[in-house]
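New to this. Please check this protein:
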Amino acid sequence: MFQGTFDLETATRIDASALSDVLFERGIYWASGRAGLVDLVAAHKWFNLAALNGRKDAVVLRQEVAGQMSDTDISAAQREARAWVSAH
């Protein structure tokens, strides 16, 4: 585990597109079951957030995941995505 410190004054800002990449990877993580559990609600949420941040391929994967979800699950994923946007 990292036990050092960060020097925020000399830190380099990451490219704005990096956020969409991280969000997209979170969607892949939950859609693929890398943790041993597939969570389509979480996958939809993260793909939705990645799409909102410019990842065009996230739109396709979000639609693919949504095709396997109930309307109730899609609504839950959308609520979670809105909550994440509000918090960040």
About this structure: The CA atoms of residues 55 and 75 lie 21 Å apart. The helical segments are 17-32, 40-52, 56-66, 71-87.
